[in-house]
Structure formats: structure tokens, C-alpha cells
Write a structure and sequence with these properties.
Helix content is about 35%, strand content about 25%. The longest helix is centred in the C-terminal third of the chain and has 20 residues. Strand 5 and strand 6 form a beta hairpin. The protein contains 19 helices and 27 strands. The chain folds into 3 domains: about 240 residues, Glutamine Phosphoribosylpyrophosphate, subunit 1, domain 1; about 190 residues, 3-Layer(aba) Sandwich (Rossmann fold); about 150 residues, 3-Layer(aba) Sandwich (Rossmann fold). The chain starts with a strand and ends in a 17-residue tail after the last helix. Bound molecules: 6-O-phosphono-alpha-D-glucopyranose (G6P).
Length: about 625
């Protein structure tokens, strides 16, 4: 949600800000802007639309200078417009601020500032920040840091901010509370950014700013204080991801690249956690394995695609262990009155590690004395840092807004945790564990098989993409797959799509079925009665002339007479089929979106990292 970049050093800030923002556009892309110190004053360029619109503006009305701050926006308060775009200024343009997050008490602050003579230009909550800083400076704050501290102590909500002030062009400032911000440590130059990929080409070291910290960056150094004014020792970390990981590598979109990366990501997780095809190691989880002995209950909390991973996690952990498992949307969990105690492990699933509701759920669980294990893709993220233990999904930067490789990595994480916990609790024999691990090891190749057939999937997508709606049906382990397939389709193709448990179809969605409705049925062969039940559900769709697209096991002819189109996947164990079936649905959504001409990596209204409630 909104991307921030800032630069201080000897180089012209403008190209660096634009490059950084282009790598952060996945966080928000409805408007963009920069503030640069140019000829003794701050020059602002900002406009509604994608970053390309800002680049066009800069062509016509160039600016150069240093230092500078930049922003790409996902609107919360105030529609996307030129006036609401960041940076926002105060004091006649002497102070410029970019912000990610929400200032919840902005209304009362705005009224008080207006009464003090400050004039507001925009509808944003952000604009109170430069005015608060200006007011503190007027009142006698002796430094920008002090003014920021006094200003931020009046603000409630979440923020990551970048600040530049034209009376002090030898520094830029940053602060965070609840929204991510990092400092890129260079040689005679320093950066701020919302995320590592923004500055991965420029620096090899970063400092993860903590909540409640204010940083002053000069060309030569970085100093950090907290909201009490005490100085904090910065902890410098090496960047572990490679710059190429944040590039498209010849693919037409990041999403297509990330779909293709799935076999490699899953192989990496298997290589790291599976020992001699016999057992699962969780050495670097950060939690004592004993915890899995004493657990009675787990609650999985997450949002969006990660929620679907959580649903799968519940089904699989219940299947493999005797632990009772619940799953909930983090945005619901945090506001209900869940009953749980110290014998409950909270598992938070999050690609970005910054999702506000998931983070709030973790904090709620910790207040009740529970241990928290997160399944997370971003080292150094808030969720990773606040959890007691972390299973890193190690999928590399996921830049396409619609999650793909992070999802299958989350499913793999649950499979490995499930086998690990079941063996530890002596609820699974060695032989069963080896069988499961052998099946898991076949998953990367099975995904390859599906990806290799993308042209066939594209043909099917081209045939069915143009209707107003589609229905996705699945059962048991593949019920979450149906929800995820529908979500992918909605997110990137904008075709309304609904995922349903196939057994529930008769209780409502069957009314939608007619000869125009594509019904995507996940019907891979299983060893229990679910397969036959699924075939019966498909027959019910067929009887009402729905257009069935089946995801079916290679060689299985059971679906042949029923489905109009079939996407074939290799034979797999039932439990692990979602890791492969979902890839077929990712590609189906992808090519539907392509046929519908949407912006696949940056679908309208969405943002990858949802750092506000
Ligand atoms: C947003 C993204 C989704 C993601 C969800 C949860 O809605 O667009 O792709 O699944 O947030 O994000 P997280 O980073 O916590 O997995």
C-alpha cells in the first residue's frame, strides 16, 4: 500500500527515485510524485495515474537535484487526483512529506491545525504530517528530528514517512510506525524505501527501521532515535536476494515469471527441509520442537490468497495430526472474541509479512501469551520479526500483485510442518512419512508438466473468458483451490468469479447455471469418495447446460463425457494435488486476463501489500 523512496548523495535523485518507484509500483499505482531539492528550493512534480504519467510530466517539465523523496500511491483518504498525490507540503513548500499508512485521528488534527492558520490543499490524511512538523518548528523545536518526534507523538494510526526540508538539504528523514520502511546503506549515499527490491540495484546493505523510530540520513551517515528522543543503534543487514530476482527475466509479466518459478521454489524448500527423503527438519524455525508435543490446538490467521493457504493448512494438519485446527480471516479474527489459551499455536500466513490485519492478530495472540509461528516470504518484515518462529517460504520477491509462487510455497510449508509435527507426536509411522515425502518430491515436476501445457490452457481461456461470470467448484483439499482459482480470475481478469464447495452448489449457485456459465471443476482422481461425488456434481452442472472446464488427472476418462474442456494434470496424492491444480487455475486466469486486455501485474484498485485495515 503506497511505495516510498528517498535518496541523499551526490547523484541526481530523479532517475534513482523513478527507478525505485518503478520497482515499488506493485504497492499502489493510482498516482505518483517526487520532491527534489533543486536550485535552493523543493521542486514537486506529481500527477494522477501510473508512474509513466509522472515520467511524461518530467519530460515536459524537467527537474533535477538532490536530495529527493518519491511516492507511488494507493488511495485511502481522498480520490486519486493530482492534488491528493504525494508529496504533501507545508510552510509554503519548505517541508515535503511522503506517507504510507493511515493517520486515524487526522480529522481532529486537521481541525486544530486549521484553527492555527494552516491551509489544507488536499483531502488526504497525510497532509496533517507536514503541517504538524511545521507547527512544531514554529513553536521552537530545535531540529527537524525533534519536530518530527513531537508531531508524530500527536498522530494515531500507521505510518512510514519520508521527509525533506529545504532549509536542510544535507539530510532526509524517515520514520515508521506500523508500515514498513527500510534504509539502504550506500557509500557516500543513503536511501529510504518501502521494500528491498526498490533499492536492490543500488545498495547491498539495509537497516530495517523499527516501529517508533525516526532516522536522519545524510550522505555520510545514519542516525536513529526513538519517539522518546533516545538514540538507537542501527543494525545493518546484508541483502540476501539477488537483483535479478526482481526483474522480469524475459517474461512478458512478473506474474508469468512467478508462475514459472514455482517448481524451483518448491524444490528449494524440499532441499532445505527434507533429510535423505526420510524426515523433515525444522532446525531454523526459531520455536522449540517441544511445542508441537504439547499443542492441543492451532489457529491459522491470514488474508486474501494466504487465507486460502490457511484453509488448506487446516485440512492438511487435521488430516496428518491429532491437533484441532481452525482457520480465520485475520480481519475477522482480530475483532471477534476467540477463545484460546496458551496451549494454542497461532500460525500467521503472509507473503509480505506486512498485512495490517494479520499483524494485529499476531499481537492479539501474543498478548494472551500464545506462541506465534508465521509462514512468511519476507525476512525482516514486521510479521517475521514479531513472530516467535518463522517458516520462510523463500520464494524470492513476488512482484505481480496476484500471488502465485508465494501461495504454492505456503502450501508446501503446511505439508512439511504437518509431516514434521505428526512424526514428532508419533502420529505417523516412518513408512507413512517416507511415502508422503516421496509424493511431495514429485510436485515440482508435476507443476512443470502443467506449465509446459500453458498453450492448451490459453486456448481454453480464450474460449471462455468473455462471459460476465464463472463458477469454480472443488471439494475437500481442493475446496480452497476453487476459492483461490476464482480469486485469481477476479483479481486479474475482472470477470466475476465465485468459488464454492461443490457439495454446496445445490444450495444456491446452481441457480446461476445456464448454457453460458463456465464452471471450472477441480476433479482430480482421489482415493476416497470425493472424486465420485465431484463427478456427480459435474453431472448436475451438465444437466443444466453449464460449460464445464475440468481439471482432471492424466489418463482419467471419468470426466471425458461430462466436461467441454479438460486441463490435464499428472496423477498425485490427493493431499498434495492442490499444489499442482492451482497452477492450472493461475494460468487459466492469466490467459483470461490477457484476452480481456487488463494490466495483469497491476490490476485495478489492488495493492500487493495491504498495510492498512
Ligand atoms: C493483498 C494481495 C494478495 C494477498 C493479500 C494478503 O490482497 O493482493 O495477493 O494474498 O494481500 O497478503 P499477505 O502479504 O499477507 O500474504
Amino acid at each position: 500500500m503506497c511505495g516510498i523512496v528517498g535518496y541523499i548523495g551526490q547523484r541526481d535523485a530523479v532517475p534513482l527515485l523513478l527507478d525505485g518507484l518503478s520497482r515499488l509500483e506493485y504497492r499502489g499505482y493510482d498516482s505518483a510524485g517526487i520532491a527534489v531539492f533543486d536550485n535552493g528550493k523543493l521542486s514537486i512534480r506529481k500527477c494522477v495515474g501510473r508512474l509513466t504519467a509522472l515520467e511524461d510530466q518530467l519530460q515536459n517539465d524537467p527537474v533535477s537535484g538532490r536530495p529527493g523523496i518519491g511516492h507511488t500511491r494507493w488511495a485511502t483518504h481522498g480520490e486519486p487526483s493530482q492534488i491528493n498525490s504525494h508529496p504533501h507540503t507545508s510552510d509554503g513548500g519548505h517541508i515535503a512529506v511522503v506517507h504510507n499508512g493511515i493517520i486515524e485521528n487526522y480529522h481532529e488534527l486537521r481541525e486544530a491545525l486549521t484553527a492555527d492558520g494552516f491551509t489544507f490543499q488536499s483531502d488526504t490524511d497525510t497532509e496533517v504530517i507536514p503541517h504538524l512538523i511545521a507547527r512544531e518548528l514554529k513553536k521552537g523545536a530545535t531540529s527537524i528530528e525533534e519536530a518530527m518526534r513531537l508531531a508524530l507523538n500527536q498522530a494515531r494510526g500507521a505510518y512510514a514517512i519520508g521527509v525533506t526540508v529545504d532549509t536542510e538539504p544535507e539530510a532526509i528523514y524517515a520514520a515508521r510506525l506500523g508500515s514498513p520502511l527500510i534504509i539502504g546503506v550506500g557509500k557516500n549515499e543513503n536511501f529510504i524505501a518501502s521494500d528491498v527490491p526498490a533499492i536492490i540495484n543500488q545498495v547491498s546493505q539495509v537497516i530495517y527501521l523499527n516501529d517508533g523510530e525516526i532516522a536522519k540520513l545524510t550522505q555520510e551517515g545514519i542516525s536513529i532515535t526513538n519517539l522518546k528522543g533516545e538514540s538507537v543503534k542501527p543494525e545493518i543487514k546484508e541483502i540476501t536476494i539477488k537483483a535479478e530476482a526482481a526483474e522480469k527475466a524475459g517474461f512478458e509479466t512478473f506474474m508469468l515469471k512467478e508462475i514459472h518459478e514455482q517448481p524451483r521454489v518448491l524444490r528449494g524448500l524440499l532441499a532445505k527441509h527434507v533429510i535423505d527423503d526420510k524426515s523433515v527438519s525444522m532446525n531454523d524455525l526459531g520455536l522449540s520442537p517441544d511445542l508441537f508435543h504439547i499443542l492441543n490446538r492451532m489457529i491459522i490467521v491470514s488474508c486474501g490468497t494466504a487465507y486460502h493457504a490457511g484453509m488448506y493448512g487446516k485440512l492438511l494438519l487435521e488430516h496428518l495430526t491429532s491437533i484441532a485446527v481452525e482457520t480465520d480471516l485475520a480481519s475477522e479474527f482480530r475483532y471477534r472474541d476467540p477463545k484460546f489459551g496458551r496451549d494454542t499455536l497461532i500460525i500467521a500466513v503472509s507473503q509480505s509479512g506486512e498485512t495490517a490485519d494479520t499483524l494485529a492478530s499476531i499481537r492479539m495472540a501474543k498478548e494472551r501469551g500464545c506462541k506465534v509461528l508465521s509462514i512468511c516470504n519476507v525476512p525482516g518484515s514486521s510479521i517475521a520479526r514479531e513472530s516467535d518462529g518463522v517458516f520462510f517460504t523463500e520464494a524470492g520477491p513476488e512482484i505481480g500483485v496476484a500471488s502465485t509462487k508465494a501461495y504454492t510455497a505456503q502450501l508446501m510449508a503446511f505439508a512439511l510442518i504437518g509431516i514434521f509435527a505428526a512424526r514428532l507426536r508419533e502420529e505417523m509411522t516412518q513408512g507413512e512419512a517416507e511415502d508422503l515425502l516421496q509424493s511431495l518430491s514429485a510436485i515440482p515436476d508435476a507443476i512443470h508438466y502443467v506449465v509446459d501445457r500453458k498453450d492448451e490452457i490459453k486456448t481454453i481461456a480464450n474460449k471462455h473468458h468473455d462471459g460476465p461470470s464463472s463458477l469454480y467448484l472443488g471439494r475437500k483439499f481442493n475446496f480452497p483451490t476453487a476459492l483461490e482459482g476464482a480469486l485469481k480470475n477476479k483479481e486479474i481478469s475482472y470477470q466475476h468469479a465465485e468459488g464454492y464447495a461443490a457439495g454446496e452448489m445445490k444450495h444456491g449457485p446452481i441457480a446461476l447455471i445456464n448454457e453460458y456459465l463456465p464452471v471450472i471443476c477441480i476433479c482430480t482422481k482421489t482415493e476416497d469418495e470425493v472424486y465420485e461425488k465431484m463427478i456427480s456434481n459435474m453431472k448436475e452442472v451438465e444437466a443444466r447446460h453449464g460449460r464445464i472446464i475440468a481439471i482432471a488427472t492424466d489418463g482419467d476418462e471419468g470426466v471425458a463425457g461430462v466436461a467441454e474442456d479438460i486441463i490435464r494434470v499428472p496423477e498425485m496424492r490427493d493431499e498434495f494435488s492442490p499444489l499442482v491444480n492451482v497452477v492450472a487455475l493461475q494460468l487459466l486466469a492469466y490467459y483470461a486476463a490477457q484476452a480481456r486486455g487488463t494490466d495483469i501485474d497491476k490490476p485495478r484498485n489492488l495493492a500487493k501489500s495491504v498495510t492498512v485495515e
